């Protein structure tokens, strides 16, 4: 018994060394940036996911618009066991920059509402709004929160490359802790927690002597953390950037250290 215990104690450090080293822990600002972004942004794989969802018919007392604190009436199947619903409106349609395949749509955040009672129409109380609620706005169940612990460890993945195709908050220059939309998703092998290198395409300049155009070498631009994957799209957060990043910059799978 003592001999077996001694062997285990001697072997433990070597066994530990064979395990993959944990990834860097996410600091508080990074965690907050992810959770804040997901409160206001969502992707749907198909337009039908939005078109078939329950929708707002009218505001309280038949008014056209609903505001924070008011009640709205909705048509469609709403589960009282799911007390809170997000209010969304169709936003930008995403297509692949190379193949033009439809990848998904951005659901614009309008607010949230709480289930109150059911009848011919379901009544909900508006709890948070980013703009006035309109008839036709859709009601969607809340997505599960990001498991932050799953974003801290290394993830094995095949080589994947793609493009940054959007910055949901609308800026043109992308910096640290900005969230971006990627044209790759679960079907391509991306997983939550994956690290991606951003590659800045080298500029094309003219040779001063020959006059011929010359393309400069591509350069490392920064690193993304994939924090929410969909079927064909993903959201990534910029962890570091050595230069301003932009839409259509290329990304590729970062090598994982063991």
Automatic annotation (TrEMBL):
Instruction: Say which domain of life the source belongs to.
Output: Bacteria
Signal peptide limits: 1-17
Keyword line: Signal
PANTHER family in UniProt: PHAGE-LIKE ELEMENT PBSX PROTEIN XKDP, POTASSIUM BINDING PROTEIN KBP
Q: What is this protein called?
A: Peptidoglycan-binding protein
């Amino acid at each position: 018994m003592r001999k077996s215990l001694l062997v285990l104690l001697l072997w433990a450090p070597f066994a530990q060394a064979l395990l993959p080293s944990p990834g860097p822990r996410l600091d508080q600002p990074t965690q907050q940036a992810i959770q804040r972004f997901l409160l206001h942004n969502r992707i749907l794989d198909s337009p039908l996911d939005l078109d078939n969802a329950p929708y707002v018919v009218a505001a309280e007392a038949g008014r056209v618009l609903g505001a924070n604190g008011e009640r709205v009436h909705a048509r469609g199947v709403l589960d009282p066991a799911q007390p809170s619903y997000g209010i969304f409106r169709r936003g930008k349609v995403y297509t692949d920059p190379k193949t033009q395949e439809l990848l998904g749509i951005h659901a614009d955040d309008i607010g949230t509402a709480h289930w109150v009672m059911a009848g011919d129409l379901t009544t909900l109380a508006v709890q948070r709004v980013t703009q006035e609620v309109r008839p036709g706005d859709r009601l969607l169940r809340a997505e599960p929160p990001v498991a932050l612990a799953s974003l801290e460890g290394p993830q094995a993945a095949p080589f994947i490359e793609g493009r940054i195709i959007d910055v949901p908050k609308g800026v043109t220059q992308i910096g640290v802790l900005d969230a971006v939309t990627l044209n790759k998703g679960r079907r391509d092998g991306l997983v939550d927690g994956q690290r991606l290198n951003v590659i800045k395409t080298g500029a094309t300049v003219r040779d001063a002597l020959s006059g011929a155009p010359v393309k400069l070498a591509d350069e490392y631009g920064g690193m993304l953390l994939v924090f929410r994957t969909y079927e064909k799209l993903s959201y990534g957060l910029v962890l570091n950037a050595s230069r301003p990043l932009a839409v259509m910059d290329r990304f590729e799978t970062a090598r994982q250290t063991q």
